């Protein structure tokens, strides 16, 4: 298995990564550094510390960090500037969290002199790719350990056996197979696998945990106003909030109104289709609002160019290429467009829908003088004739060429 | 004004195009052929015939046609194969109707020996461009008359005066200014202008006519199944329907559930921003369903390529370039992808949302064998290591180059 | 090594693939079918037959085919319709040959009941990817054997030892290391490795074999005319030629004039940069000529759309995705544009350059009446004012918004 | 004609703009400010001053400026970072000069309190669009005068008559029609019209003025080395040069070797095709060199993204949208990629060709260790199997779906 001295493990404190922790110690005979991050998944972190200690990790090797503000400010918001949607629908909630976790693992490896990093993603999914591309991009010489691709604990029974053998505590509800697997952070919560595997079957209500169903949402709409500065949201209903606090509040508002559920069959980077069920209440509201403020403040040329590169940008993030030159180049393009994306959007939240019903901006490019049907000084309707004629010229020459050719 | 002998006018039977009809006779001293098409706007056509006769049009010069099936089959469905959205949100309901009207006008001009065509679009909007680009593309030598850009009837008062002077009947509710202007066909109904001009103000309920508000929609969801063949919908809940009948039924279902409303500030081709309010109940359901069946049946490479060219394709339609080589080239690309887009999608319609909750297909590319977490024969998890390592190679070399460079 | 019964080997008759042949028999204990294709590489095929027989291949298992016409007609010409260049410069001479060889291997496997295919490409290059992606795309259940990735004959010495041990004849000049490795077909000949590995060193003259150096080319230019029909060349100087005959003649003409040499550092799909030296005399002439005839016959919208998708199309071919839906979709787009690409191009060939100096076409869209500086009836210069004003409108509104905002 | 008080005219000192100068004074009764810029067109500027004075322009209204460094540094070099080619071939020599002239005109208008600007471009070409889009983008309220679209001096005879009537000196060779029209600056010289209007006829040698013909170029190649820093050339053969001095030297070297001639039929923005003959000796060398250094220093993802957006970027410049948000966004993307584009390229210049024959860089991403055929530690050939298998997975599932579907 090679000579690994110290490995930084992305550690959740759950059963799987606890098994990995123990397996790393055994299989590699190496020191393990655990890294547990609060990205808003909604779990206490201190139990992870106690569990790590219990599994023999030295206190100085236990890293527990609240990264919620970093996550939203440096990853979520830049991505939302692009109105990124993977395959037209998916808000990339899992994808966007991986680069931050990876970056911290690599930084901690440097700080602790570790020569390897490890993660708990399986060999069939996208997350292994996202983790590892980020690791390699940030430290080309790092050693990467992906236990799920290496070990033989490839069934629930073997995993439980290993845990019992090594005195790893097993929560009662973890003994059997979970009915589906979950990933959560401040942007979204996802569910996939097992009971969700038949794409013809509607997901049952118990799959959802961050939103009420539209049917259970209030019968009265909720109106909110979101304020933007240079493309990022900064306030809700006049109250300035930090990035993480703002997204938390949008999650609350969206979730209470049944907003942000998505049942999707998507194409994984590793080549297969999979079915995922996502809840992204705050993100769904934010996307609608951001498009709303851009409608008023973004020039057409800028807006259309953004729309054209967006699928590529989203694909890069989905595939794990956050730390690639091409993602950074597209980000430079996108950020360049957001300078004047300032103003306020009013939204109506109601039983599953987030609808923009108003927008205003000091940088508005909407000109009532130009758009009114009245005669006016700013726009000479006769200009349209020349505009159309020259736009049509090539088409006319083409038709003539084809007729006489 | 030049020597026009006969002009084919796109004639709705309403006040504005009746004034145009009379004005053409006067200003150009020419014979007028009226063309009135049923594209599903929901109005009787026979009154238009009577009105044209009353205004002195010879019976053989009155063309009244039901083009609903042509419209949906040859324009709407091809466009939906592309999942086309202009500026991320607009389903192009007005844009897609213009090419068909234009084509018939040019054909009727050929049949009747007319040397000109005329339309009732104003000099500030997109429709003049769409009509005229289509005219010129189909007949490069046609004479185009756009009365709104030529005459001096540029206020409501002057228009009414002209109508009265020429015994053009004026409906009572047309005397005053309309609170907004409307365009309708089987795909959508749009409203813009006047009371809608302030983008900060929420449109009032009376603006909408094709859908109930989400609040007024039933408290129980409606479930439907849509069947697709080679990318086009062919049946609802097992009942095969013609294209127009199918879209009509989707409008009914969507409208009854408050689906398809859009309040948008968009960028016109002529360079200004405008605010439009759209209702596209059936189209909104159809887009969701089409994406649903593509999720299951479209290869990733095909799907992503489609997504990347979509904004360009939508822009071409919005700008009026339906009859351009580049639109046709993109259509060839899109149609090539739809060969296996067959199957059934189940949707939940509820208070403004159309949600895909199931999809199945004989051509499904979703492989449960590949996606399951169990150990399996079809997918060797160790392949992922090589996949990741070679995808990472350039990033590692880059990082090294930058570190040592 | 698994249970392979019969394997179809892409067999050149050279030392490497002869060693592979023997190794397959030994390592897999399986029957070997050899497939040797004439793609215009300029070598006799009959020696390959004799060698295969000598190595124990049954006569009915020896496939030798002249595929030059298939190659040029079905692969080279379609690619040239796109003006494909990888990384701005490379005419994809090697890339485009692999899909045809792979297709025939899969077909022969079906005919002979073979359950596997094998190729002689190494584990670091693009060709392994191209071969295998094509194999899998055409037969998802085929077994693929890539000896260079499996065996331990990973040095010249071991390879020669194996050959000697198995009585494989070794040409004298194959004993030592070749100074560079070569791939050839009717489109190009490439050289890479060893003496070419330092990208700062100019390739020496002996590397080139299909063209004279520009310095040695004639001091007088050669003028030729190439005729096109629907985007493909069909005649040179008035003489109709089959696709392969035409490309052969262009190679002769281009090579004699020092045309088509390229010294390139390129990005491989497997993640590293490599240096290649290419000779593509006929292809270089053909690209210039095709662009020349498109200049006259292709509409601007079509031409620009083609240019925008070309890099993606070229990348797909380079990476081995010829048999992918997205390549086929792009091909449909490209082919749709070529309907009227008819006419004749005159070129000057001189000491390394192929220059278009004239083009004419019955489908020309070039209109002298429109382009002349004289006053004319077909173009009203005043139209330009409206055209410019409406194109400028959004930029003016933007500037105003930024100034007052 | 409206009330213009003061107009800034782009004044060359030639006959046409002298006539315009006089016509502006007459037709508009306004004060004229002349702006004459040295962009490297190769003409003395002082005669323009004297001529302006003679035509009654006040000394303080005569602006004569050497903008060569600004031109190359702020316009030419940024464009070359993109490897921009319009329609695959044209280096945009005229297009890139217009934004600088326009910007200075607008600045001078502000300084002098002028309310209008004027240019001498005709109503059929691209330059009117480029000038005016730039004017409007930089000052949305500026009044634009385009005499060629307004006056009736639309034949040579009328123009000469006007000149004689107003005592405008006429050079002998300007009395008759010029055999073609010319535009020149430090990047290129173009010729079009009259004797060049038949695209089947080869341009005669006298059309060219900045390069010898390849036939007349030296029989020995010239080797040069160009050094780059962050994407821009900074030295030739070890000698650091200012941007303008460097391009001047490249023009000398390229022109002496017959490099940079282009005979093109192109698509104008105003909708027609036209034929142009261009000489861009230094630019042609520079493009080859820049691609050469990028080959070594640019990551594949960055390089391919650049190639994909390039046609759009070139189109924007050709069409006159230099001062548009979308051009600036693309520039941000491109510039972001050039940080490590450092190093030296060696080129061979010979009878019309500029060929890269060597490149080296401290930031090279080319790794001999990775590319060598030998067994090595840095690259595990077995990784390729996984890489290929996962890239193939979707294609296999697709084929299976189609076979069993």
UniProtKB/TrEMBL annotation, chains A, B, C, D:
<feature type="binding site">
    <location>
        <position position="90"/>
    </location>
    <ligand>
        <name>L-citrulline</name>
    </ligand>
</feature>
<feature type="binding site">
    <location>
        <position position="126"/>
    </location>
    <ligand>
        <name>L-aspartate</name>
    </ligand>
</feature>
<feature type="binding site">
    <location>
        <position position="130"/>
    </location>
    <ligand>
        <name>L-citrulline</name>
    </ligand>
</feature>
<feature type="binding site">
    <location>
        <position position="278"/>
    </location>
    <ligand>
        <name>L-citrulline</name>
    </ligand>
</feature>
<dbReference type="InterPro" id="IPR023434">
    <property type="entry name" value="Arginosuc_synth_type_1_subfam"/>
</dbReference>
<keyword id="KW-0067">ATP-binding</keyword>
<feature type="binding site">
    <location>
        <position position="95"/>
    </location>
    <ligand>
        <name>L-citrulline</name>
    </ligand>
</feature>
<dbReference type="Pfam" id="PF20979">
    <property type="entry name" value="Arginosuc_syn_C"/>
</dbReference>
<dbReference type="InterPro" id="IPR001518">
    <property type="entry name" value="Arginosuc_synth"/>
</dbReference>
<feature type="binding site">
    <location>
        <begin position="10"/>
        <end position="18"/>
    </location>
    <ligand>
        <name>ATP</name>
    </ligand>
</feature>
<feature type="domain" description="Arginosuccinate synthase-like N-terminal">
    <location>
        <begin position="6"/>
        <end position="169"/>
    </location>
</feature>
<keyword id="KW-0963">Cytoplasm</keyword>
<comment type="similarity">
    <text>Belongs to the argininosuccinate synthase family. Type 1 subfamily.</text>
</comment>
<feature type="binding site">
    <location>
        <position position="266"/>
    </location>
    <ligand>
        <name>L-citrulline</name>
    </ligand>
</feature>
<dbReference type="InterPro" id="IPR048268">
    <property type="entry name" value="Arginosuc_syn_C"/>
</dbReference>
<keyword id="KW-0028">Amino-acid biosynthesis</keyword>
<keyword id="KW-0436">Ligase</keyword>
<comment type="pathway">
    <text>Amino-acid biosynthesis; L-arginine biosynthesis; L-arginine from L-ornithine and carbamoyl phosphate: step 2/3.</text>
</comment>
<keyword id="KW-0547">Nucleotide-binding</keyword>
<feature type="domain" description="Arginosuccinate synthase C-terminal">
    <location>
        <begin position="180"/>
        <end position="396"/>
    </location>
</feature>
<feature type="binding site">
    <location>
        <position position="181"/>
    </location>
    <ligand>
        <name>L-citrulline</name>
    </ligand>
</feature>
<feature type="binding site">
    <location>
        <position position="120"/>
    </location>
    <ligand>
        <name>ATP</name>
    </ligand>
</feature>
<dbReference type="GO" id="GO:0004055">
    <property type="term" value="F:argininosuccinate synthase activity"/>
</dbReference>
<keyword id="KW-0055">Arginine biosynthesis</keyword>
<feature type="binding site">
    <location>
        <position position="127"/>
    </location>
    <ligand>
        <name>L-aspartate</name>
    </ligand>
</feature>
<comment type="subunit">
    <text>Homotetramer.</text>
</comment>
<feature type="binding site">
    <location>
        <position position="126"/>
    </location>
    <ligand>
        <name>L-citrulline</name>
    </ligand>
</feature>
<dbReference type="Pfam" id="PF00764">
    <property type="entry name" value="Arginosuc_synth"/>
</dbReference>
<dbReference type="InterPro" id="IPR014729">
    <property type="entry name" value="Rossmann-like_a/b/a_fold"/>
</dbReference>
<feature type="binding site">
    <location>
        <position position="37"/>
    </location>
    <ligand>
        <name>ATP</name>
    </ligand>
</feature>
<dbReference type="InterPro" id="IPR018223">
    <property type="entry name" value="Arginosuc_synth_CS"/>
</dbReference>
<feature type="binding site">
    <location>
        <position position="190"/>
    </location>
    <ligand>
        <name>L-citrulline</name>
    </ligand>
</feature>
<protein>
    <recommendedName>
        <fullName>Argininosuccinate synthase</fullName>
        <ecNumber>6.3.4.5</ecNumber>
    </recommendedName>
</protein>
<feature type="binding site">
    <location>
        <position position="122"/>
    </location>
    <ligand>
        <name>L-aspartate</name>
    </ligand>
</feature>
<dbReference type="InterPro" id="IPR024074">
    <property type="entry name" value="AS_cat/multimer_dom_body"/>
</dbReference>
<dbReference type="InterPro" id="IPR048267">
    <property type="entry name" value="Arginosuc_syn_N"/>
</dbReference>
């Amino acid at each position: 298995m090679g000579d690994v001295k110290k490995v930084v493990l992305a550690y959740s404190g759950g059963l799987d990564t606890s098994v990995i922790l123990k397996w790393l110690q055994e299989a590699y005979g190496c020191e393990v550094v655990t890294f547990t991050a609060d990205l808003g998944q909604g779990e206490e972190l201190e139990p992870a510390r106690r569990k790590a200690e219990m599994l023999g990790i030295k206190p100085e090797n236990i890293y527990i960090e609240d990264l919620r503000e970093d996550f939203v400010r440096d990853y979520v918001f830049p991505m939302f500037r692009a109105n990124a949607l993977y395959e037209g629908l998916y808000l990339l909630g899992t994808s966007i969290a991986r680069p931050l976790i990876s970056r911290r693992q690599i930084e901690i490896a440097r700080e602790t002199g570790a020569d390897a990093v490890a993660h708990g993603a399986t060999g069939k999914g996208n997350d292994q790719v996202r983790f590892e591309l980020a690791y390699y991009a940030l430290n080309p010489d790092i050693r990467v350990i992906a236990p799920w691709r290496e070990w033989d604990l490839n069934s629930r029974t073997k995993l439980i056996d290993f845990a019992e053998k090594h005195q790893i505590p097993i929560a009662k509800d973890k003994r059997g197979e979970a009915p589906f697997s979950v990933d959560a952070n401040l942007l979204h919560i996802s569910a996939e696998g097992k009971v969700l595997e038949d794409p013809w079957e509607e997901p049952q209500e118990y799959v959802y945990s961050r939103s009420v169903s539209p049917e259970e949402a209030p019968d009265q709409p909720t109106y909110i106003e979101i304020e933007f500065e240079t493309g990022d949201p900064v306030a809700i209903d006049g109250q300035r909030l930090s990035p993480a606090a703002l997204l938390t509040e949008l999650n609350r508002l969206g979730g209470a109104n049944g907003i942000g559920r998505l049942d999707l069959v998507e194409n994984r980077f590793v080549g297969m289709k999979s079915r995922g069920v996502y809840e992204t209440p705050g993100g769904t509201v934010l996307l609608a609002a951001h498009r709303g403020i851009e409608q008023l403040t973004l020039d057409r040329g800028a807006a259309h160019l953004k729309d054209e590169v967006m699928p590529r940008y989203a694909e890069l993030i989905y595939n794990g290429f956050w730390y690639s030159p091409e993602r950074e180049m597209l980000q430079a393009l996108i950020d360049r467009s957001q300078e004047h994306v300032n103003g306020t959007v009013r939204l109506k939240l109601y039983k599953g829908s987030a609808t923009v019903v108003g927008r205003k901006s000091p940088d508005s490019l909407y000109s009532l003088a130009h758009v009114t049907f009245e005669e006016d000084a700013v726009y000479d309707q006769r200009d349209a004739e020349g505009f159309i004629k020259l736009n049509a010229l090539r088409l006319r020459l083409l038709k003539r060429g084809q007729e006489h050719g």
